[in-house]
Design a protein that fits this description.
By secondary structure, this protein is an alpha+beta fold. The chain is built from 15 helices and 19 strands.
Length: about 500
């Protein structure tokens, strides 16, 4: 009787798509990597030994690693994992793409652990919850993580775990599978991870292979374009590169999110540690290969970077001149026109020095004095002129509240630019000056922002401004009075063609 119950339980477990336990099985053991623990340990130890000594000058906060079968990509992955071996991290956030299903968000595994033949890798459930974003684009979900009947399970996250178990034993993880290439998802994920990076001692792993199934020499050329782009640490440029197929990266989405997160760190640097392809292994077929890249990201804490920051802060002082305002307005208008007509965006060469400094900014589009689009970066992620280009394009085509601007509307579109100071946390709301300060209100996963001009446009006083920012955050009107609510202020220089006159 007892035997029959056991058999029935096994049959039921085979018929379900989702495991009942909160431990994700090692679906790909014996396929992409060995199923035998001793064999796994031997392979990875050999790869690490062959990779040689560490070369990064600082402890990395992020690495990019390939995810093919170990015999192909394991030797390259080892160049990144050697850099984190025996380092101290409180947790590792691993991001991978999804090769087996599509979903329009980033899915954080809500279970207790991932399993490999080497044992359990515990999930840091508190940190996992902290990775969730209030916009619903990054959330706890099983999509991309679990196996389905008669279908293979996603491997690109799982294959990283035995490496981590050997180089960072007993370190918990946060597994994230990205199911889309939607920029909004990657931006939301990257910004949240960046916030956590500056607060916590964590490592971010982005799992990706590069060019797929080209002849050996062609693969080298394609991957070099990707490497050249990676070295610029420009998330949007990398994103456009892989989505336009200028180069290939099946994990381009996780890499983009890592590059966005990296901009929150002081003086982020990247070093390409190794690149090769499947044709480089013994008896590898060079007629159709897959490219692999290992890279490490770290902070440059040398004194010379402080001098650069000082120079930037000097350039950042004071409002933009009339000429600088006109330059940005012209750039934004040209960008909107190009984006709407599906033409190449401006690539200016004569950029004034102060516009090369990283600044947060919003671009607002109006049609007959009615809002037609408004998107921006709060924090100084990119040089100001690049921020204006990216946000002008986004305001015209990507504001989820509106349909994309059409070519027939261009003659009626006016542009307003708000250049921001870095937000500052306050404890006394009485310091808020209506018309001068913009507001950011945060509580838990809820966050809302209103620009300074919103309060003056509607004739609000300070308290009404606070209330409406709470509502924008999805909080009760009086949430700003709660001691657990964080209030930040920032200033903005706001200008348009009309004001510049």
């Amino acid at each position: 009787m007892k035997k029959g119950v056991i058999i029935m339980a096994v049959i039921l477990s085979m018929l379900t798509d989702i495991p009942s336990a909160q431990e994700r099985p090692a679906y790909n053991a014996g396929a992409f990597y060995p199923a035998n623990p001793a064999e796994i340990t031997s392979q990875i130890t050999t790869y690490l030994k062959n990779a040689g000594p560490k070369t990064l000058p600082q402890k990395p906060f992020g690495i990019i690693v390939p995810h093919a079968g170990y015999i192909y990509s394991g030797p390259v992955a080892a160049y990144a994992y050697r850099e984190v071996k025996d380092q101290k991290y409180d947790a590792v956030i691993i991001m991978s793409p999804c090769h087996v299903e599509y979903f329009p968000f980033a899915a954080i595994y809500p279970g207790d652990a991932y399993l490999t033949p080497l044992g359990k890798v515990a999930v840091d459930k508190k940190l996992a919850t902290q990775c969730v974003t209030s916009d619903g684009l990054v959330k706890l979900a099983t999509e991309g993580h679990l196996g389905r009947r008669f279908e293979r399970a996603e491997h690109s996250l799982e294959v990283q775990l035995p490496f981590l178990q050997i180089v960072l034993p007993n370190t918990p993880i946060v597994p994230i599978v990205v199911g889309t290439h939607d920029w909004r998802v990657l931006e939301s994920l990257g910004n949240r991870l960046g916030e956590l990076l500056v607060q916590k001692n964590i490592l971010i792993v982005a799992s990706s292979d590069f060019s797929h199934y080209h002849p050996y020499s062609e693969c080298q050329k394609i991957d070099q374009r990707a490497i050249d782009c990676l070295k610029q640490l420009d998330a949007m440029k990398f994103y456009k590169g892989f989505t336009s197929e200028t180069f290939e990266a099946c994990g381009g989405a996780p890499i983009t999110a890592l590059l966005i997160a990296a901009q929150k760190m002081k003086n982020p640097q990247i070093e390409i540690l190794k690149n090769a392809n499947s044709g480089d292994v013994p008896h590898g077929d060079k007629s159709a290969v897959v490219g692999y890249v290992a890279a490490g990201l770290y902070q440059d804490t040398k004194a010379k970077s402080e001098n650069k920051n000082t120079a930037n802060s000097q350039l950042n002082k004071g409002d933009l001149t009339r000429e600088e305002q006109l330059y940005l307005l012209d750039l934004a208008e040209k960008t909107v026109a190009a984006a709407v007509n599906h033409k190449p965006l401006p690539d200016p060469k004569d950029v004034p020095e102060r516009l090369k400094v990283k600044r947060g900014a919003f671009v607002t589009l109006e049609k007959h004095h009615e809002l037609r689009g408004c998107i921006g970066y709060i924090l100084p992620i990119y040089p100001l002129y690049k921020t204006v280009i990216e946000m002008a394009q986004a305001a015209a085509l990507e504001d989820p509240r509106f349909s994309p601007v059409s070519p027939s509307e261009l003659k009626d579109i006016t542009v307003e630019i708000s250049v921001l100071t870095v937000p500052e946390k306050i404890s006394d709301p009485s310091v808020i000056e209506v018309g001068k300060h913009g507001l950011i209100i945060k509580r838990g996963y809820n966050q809302g922002l209103l620009l300074p001009q919103v309060a003056t446009d509607y004739g609000w006083d300070r308290e009404t401004f606070l209330e409406h920012t709470c509502l924008k955050a999805g909080l009760p009107r009086d949430a700003w009075r709660d001691k657990n609510t964080e209030i930040q202020i920032f200033s903005a220089q706001v200008f348009s063609r009309e004001t510049v006159k």
